[in-house]
Amino acid sequence: MELKHGIHKFEGMTGVNCYWTTSDEGVVVIDTANPKSETKILDQLKAGGKSTEDVKLIIITHADIDHLGSAAELKNLTGAKIAIHESDAAILKGEEPMKEAQGFFKFIFKIMMGFFKFRTVDPDILLKDGDEIAGFKVLHTPGHTKGSIMLFKPNQLLITGDTLLSDSHAQPRGPIKLFTPDMKQAWSSIRKLHDLNFEMMLPGHGKPILENAGEKVRVLMEKKHLP
Ligand SMILES: [Zn+2]
């Protein structure tokens, strides 16, 4: 489904939001959902008029199973390059274990990890804060994982991975929340967003916010007295 500004959201990705868009080079897939999602992803691209060969780049917002789960298969099928922040690359490669979720999510995570073994893969592009990729600016926003990133297009959109989620149940705290094992670091990451203008916020979970998202993030920061 196309949202706005040429960004599409994959449907039916079992609890996680993944997106795609096109750059000068071809189709860019942002996050790959849980393992065994590659067929769903390619079928939806086909329905959007794109072929397997059109996929040139896979950007992973952070190294959690529900975001990198089908990266290896998708790379194999398409020949696309994989980009991930340098601090999360070792998890994708299988050189470091994935972090364990806490609390309620620990339970869910354990189940997911039991069901799904993800295939490790070497990334092609290691991202750093401030990099430009496929028309996005990379913001390094650690906290949820060491190498969590957001992808920013001025005045248009911010793809937030799992660092900032939308949460319609979080009233009166507002429609946006942080979801992270390291709250202190995550809040300091969020400071980076203060002066950014964007209309849409596209989170890794929860409903995308299609209007006034930058303002909503600022309201959340002001409640927390940030910066
Ligand atoms: Zn997630």
Task: Walk me through this protein's architecture.
The radius of gyration is 16 Å and the shape is globular. It has 227 residues and is an alpha/beta fold. Strands 1-2-3-4-5-6 form a 6-stranded mixed beta sheet, covered by helices on one side. A 5-stranded mixed beta sheet has the order 7-8-9-10-13, with no helix packed on it. It has a two-stranded antiparallel sheet with strand order 11-12. The chain has one domain (8-223): Metallo-beta-lactamase, Chain A (4-Layer Sandwich), CATH 3.60.15.10. It contains 7 helices and 13 strands. A hairpin with an 8-residue loop joins β8 (136-140) and β9 (149-153).
Which series of helices and strands comes N to C? EEEHEHHEHHEEEEEEEHEH
What is the total domain count? 1
Query: What is bound: which ligands?
Result: zinc ion
Q: What is the CATH architecture term?
A: 4-Layer Sandwich
How confident overall, as mean pLDDT? 88
Helix content: 25-40%
> What structural class do you assign from the helix and strand content?
alpha/beta
Described by strand count, sense and barrel closure, the largest sheet is: 6 strands, mixed
Query: How many angstroms does the end-to-end distance come to?
Result: 35 Å
Q: Secondary-structure map with pairings?
A:
Blueprint: E1 8-9, E2 19-22, E3 27-30, H1 38-47, E4 55-59, H2 65-68, H3 71-78, E5 81-85, H4 89-93, H5 103-115, E6 125-127, E7 132-133, E8 136-140, E9 149-153, E10 157-161, E11 164-166, E12 176-178, H6 183-190, E13 200-203, H7 213-223
Parallel strand pairs: 3-4, 4-5, 5-6, 10-13
Antiparallel strand pairs: 1-2, 2-3, 7-8, 8-9, 9-10, 11-12
